[in-house]
Amino acid sequence: MPALSVRVWRGTTQGAFQTFEVPRHASQTVLDVVTHIQRALDPTLAYRFACRVGMCGSCAMTVNGVARWTCRTHVDKVAQDGALEIAPLANLPVIRDLVADMREFFDKWARAKGRFRGAQTRHEDFARLPPHSAQRMQIDAAIECIGCGVCYSSCDVVAWNPEYLGPAALNRAWTLTRDERDSAHLVRLRAVAGDAGCHACHTHMSCSERCPKNIAPTASIAGLKRAVAKAALRGEL
Amino acid sequence: MSAVARSEFAVRGETRLWIAQRASAALLALCVMVHLATLIYAVQGGLSAAEILARTRGNFGWLAFYSLFVLAVTVHVPIGLRAPLGEWLGWRGRSRDVVLVGFAMLLAAFGMRAVFGVFA
């Protein structure tokens, strides 16, 4: 197989692409390519990964202009004419090379009240949530988020409105809104309403298109819009 | 107003605008369909302007329908313009809303002028 020509972003917000020649292998992933560059060609290359099996959400990068989880992205599927262009995630500050600063992304989860707040103690009986109840199924559809930031990086509204909480944080808020054990529903609905929250979503669906876990944050955000509207019409907001 | 009160006001306000936007969109879907169907019917029948005016003048049904249409446009369009003004031009805050209220009044004035043009 001919070698791959790989353009890799070097620097911070200011920087340039550097080209490397990387040998091709069968079933090679984009993360394999980046790891080869760092281990064999240039040890100063900064990038982030942990699990290598699509669980941890730390290796997301922009590959040929599209945000992807690199550990589960095969070179065969994304290389164009034997070439790859690898950059850090968009819509986030760059720390160095392929490492994006995820602080704002996760701070927004906190701002969206993405933390479970129970009202019961360990002395009380377990809450029983039937697996086939509508609420539980809505939670199941949205709960497998690994926090990779691919949706956030793909979202036009995040690019246009830096205050926007983004698809992942709103998706997390939606799962808690559906959780009957949670006791902070109204506080959360207030946190996710408005111009920085669910109402800013234009339903472009880039998040749902790109999510490597096949979650549809757009649907979760639509659910939040309905929940917020119902609370407002009941005069609770 | 305190910062907390202001943010609560903003959350309620934004939510009401969203509800108004959705409700006016539903109304517009209906109004546009009725309007287009009427238009196609009138054109196919070969009605002249004078014949159309003869049907609309003094007709309170059409007056009510097109007034509703104008109301839906007046609510829907300015709210719809808020997002692109904020996102593409970075124009947010009070000045944007004041200008859009002015724009809404302009739409209402021109719309009702047209409605009365075929009613009176």
Question: What's the helix and strand layout?
Answer:
The complex is a heterodimer of chains A (237) and B (120).
Chain A: E1 4-11, E2 15-22, H1 30-41, E3 60-63, E4 66-69, H2 75-78, E5 83-87, E6 94-96, E7 99-100, H3 103-111, H4 134-142, H5 150-154, H6 156-160, H7 167-177, H8 185-192, H9 206-210, H10 217-233
Parallel strand pairs in A: 1-5
Antiparallel strand pairs in A: 1-2, 3-4, 3-5, 6-7
Helix pairs in contact in A: 3-7, 4-7, 7-8, 7-10, 8-10
Chain B: H1 3-44, H2 49-56, H3 60-89, H4 94-119
Helix pairs in contact in B: 1-3, 3-4
Question: Mind explaining what this structure looks like?
Answer:
The complex is a heterodimer of chains A (237) and B (120). In chain A, 36% of the residues lie in helices and 14% in strands. Chain A is α+β, with helices and mostly antiparallel strands and 237 residues long. In chain A, the strands form 2 sheets. In chain A, strands 2-1-5-3-4 form a 5-stranded mixed sheet. Chain A is elongated and about 65 Å long. The mean pLDDT of chain A is 96. Chain B is mostly helical and 120 residues long. Chain B contains 4 helices and no strands. Chain B is elongated, with a radius of gyration of 18 Å. Chain A binds chain B through residues 157, 160-161, 190, 193-195, 199-200, 202, 225, 228-229, 232-233, 237, and chain B through 8, 10-12, 14-19, 22, 83, 86-88, 92.
